[in-house]
Write a structure and sequence with these properties.
The protein contains 5 helices and 5 strands, in the order βααβββααβα. The chain has helices at about 10-20, 25-30, 60-75, 80, 95-105; strands spanning about 1-5, 40-45, 45-50, 50, 85. It is globular.
Length: about 120
């Protein structure tokens, strides 16, 4: 899975408050405030069924990821679901999505070409 560690409280500073301390302190900080619990935000997949997905287009990887998401939602406990969130995929009216994202003061969106591939070690522009 490709994603990032996030906090429901806000941006990267909230993540650093937990990830930047020793394990016992990190656990304590999350136990004291349920909104401080970190979770993994999944937005892509690099390996599936023990096979690299480097030559698979984004749109095909999204189909795989949606299948994994469906299985996870059926099989995971409510507690497990608190620690994983899957990105939503939008293919229409991206201008409205961007406006809504800014209006909600969210951090942003990720734009990917549906025909794109995973390129190891490539840095975003």
């Amino acid at each position: 899975m490709i994603g990032e560690i996030c906090s429901r409280k806000g941006g990267s500073n909230e993540v650093t408050k937990i990830m930047g301390c020793l394990p016992l302190k990190a656990v304590a900080r999350q136990e004291n405030d349920s909104n401080s619990k970190l979770y993994f935000y999944v937005h892509d997949i690099a390996i599936y069924a023990q096979e690299m997905q480097l030559n698979i287009k984004t749109e095909e990887r999204i189909v795989l990821l949606n299948g994994i998401k469906e299985n996870f939602e059926k099989q995971a406990t409510n507690e497990e679901k608190m620690f994983v969130e899957f990105a939503e995929t939008y293919t229409k009216d991206l201008g409205q999505l961007l406006s809504d994202t800014f209006a909600a003061e969210e951090e942003g969106i990720v734009l990917k070409s549906k025909l794109g591939f995973i390129v190891p070690n490539k840095r975003p522009a």
